[in-house]
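Replying to the earlier thread about multi-chain prediction with a worked example.

Input:
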Amino acid sequence: MPVITVNWWQGNDRHARKELVAGITDVVTRVSGCPDDAVTVIVRDVDPDHWGRGGHLADESRSRRGQR
Amino acid sequence: MPVITVNWWQGNDRHARKELVAGITDVVTRVSGCPDDAVTVIVRDVDPDHWGRGGHLADESRSRRGQR
Amino acid sequence: MPVITVNWWQGNDRHARKELVAGITDVVTRVSGCPDDAVTVIVRDVDPDHWGRGGHLADESRSRRGQR
Amino acid sequence: MPVITVNWWQGNDRHARKELVAGITDVVTRVSGCPDDAVTVIVRDVDPDHWGRGGHLADESRSRRGQR
Amino acid sequence: MPVITVNWWQGNDRHARKELVAGITDVVTRVSGCPDDAVTVIVRDVDPDHWGRGGHLADESRSRRGQR
Amino acid sequence: MPVITVNWWQGNDRHARKELVAGITDVVTRVSGCPDDAVTVIVRDVDPDHWGRGGHLADESRSRRGQR
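Result:
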């Protein structure tokens, strides 16, 4: 009955979430042997201005470093 | 000082959240013996299109299976 | 498909966890209308020396204040 | 590689989140010895009407008690 | 900088965790486009007697239903 | 009533946890204006072999790269 929570930056669309859920469920069932129906995935889109990295909000870090 | 987090599908209104918080607090104080004031409940409404079950987004699963 | 996480202090036994799970599941199904089988409850026992309250570890606070 | 999650009431602005992220990262690097870049902070703003305390939604508790 | 948390039942060994981390990281980088190094996966083994399902502790449910 | 969760690698002792809780509580009360007593900090020690980074378990990454 695994429960997986994904925290990532907002900006991913429905297609991306479908692929994410399908892919993670596939990995978890393969590794744990549990059936598909037992896997729950909760996707949380986090605004980069609510995400800190290296002591800064992530939207600042990106503009400073040009990185994702 | 228990902290309880509830992840459920969005669509529940204020009345439902009041009942939820009162009911869970009642159970936790009864079982643990701590006072009401020590119990924190955080309610997260999750959009079914951010919730995966059985490898699919939950809004798809519902339409396919007619279930909640 | 609600997922509930309970963080509380360790020291509760199996009987307490059974009551906790049964009671919370009852509240959640009553409020949300979902079936029993759809409710997941994860119980985390936290050592009071890994729990901070008011700026102190909880086992210190208890001895200082004689409270739970 | 510490990951810190802060759940607090919504109403804090960007300036507050910047200070929060900078301050927590500073504490965690000082205590754990890891570099700044290894620290992730996720900030969740919770609506007081999704936060239960003492068996009531927090926006009710505040009006009843005049407290924060 | 995605952060993924997996809650599953204890009993999976190091080899299973390695496969889990590699597989999930692969899915998340493919879907989100972020580099491998940006993905954090935290694995929590939960004792079935701390996991509630359908109102019962999971180790009871298993013995009653002979299921995983 | 902020609730902060810290996930970090196990190996930090009681003294480190005391400093961590005191420091984070100080930051949160300063930024949010809430009193000390309203701040809860939950510290989770994660075994590096339950922590994935860059697709590998963290204890492997460390030996490969000699980093923390």
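The first helix of chain C runs from residue 14 to 32.

Feel free to reuse this layout for your own posts.
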